[in-house]
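FORM 7B: Structural annotation worksheet

SECTION A. Query
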Amino acid sequence: MLTFVGLGLYDERSVTLEGRDALRAADRVFAEFYTSKLAGATVGELEEFHDVDVEVRDRAGVESDPEPILEAAEGGDAVFLTAGDPMISTTHVDLRLQAESRGVDTRIVHGTTAEAAAASLSGLQNYRFGKATTLPFPWAHGSDGVPESVVDTVETNRERGLHTLVFLDIKIGTGPTGPDPDHEEYMTADRAAGLLAGELDAVGVAVARAGSPDPVVAADELSALADRSFGDPLHLLVVPGDLHVLERDALVELADAPPSVLPDPV
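SECTION B. Predicted structure
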């Protein structure tokens, strides 16, 4: 059996009770934290809290060399951990398909996601979000600006009146000069706002440390968000489309948006 367990958003306690039970019943526990991570807990704290040993795999160890995971699942109960939900954004469908092709049963224990948190914390309505996008570090895509695909996604959504969730780049184990096991870098909401402000005349909503005891939500023009600091990672950025009256009120009351920068509700 191979069980994919989503750890939720922040620390060792964010996992569901079902996920906790799967962890404690497993013969071996694997994890990856290159697509996202628990900002509020180390691997050691995760191990101590759940009384398990966690074998952390890098990208190559999951995508190019999954054999140890698959063999463990063939011979017993294996758990594969990710932050958030294992099949949303940090998708591992290929690993699941490989297990199924070898006759290994699989199941998913879902965890809450950044998408859900962005809507919940900001007051923006989940069904009014369009296609999401990821803003990479400039050095990661070989250019000083914002990839055209990111701008196109935001503009297409806005033309349809939809909000855009912008995931912010995480680089662990890879730096500007190539593989680097000591490199750990997180795109911040203020840096992302500054990059996008050069391409878009729009309002943004910064969401920092969703799932933590002290999340921060702030809405303003992108250029204004670029001049602020939102503290420790992880961060997200939302570019709203048309606003329902309740969404507009929520951005003012919950995200301290200056009313003058927000469009009239539709």
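SECTION C. Observations
The chain has eleven helices and twelve strands. The longest strand covers residues 178-186.

SECTION D. Sign-off
Analyst initials: ____
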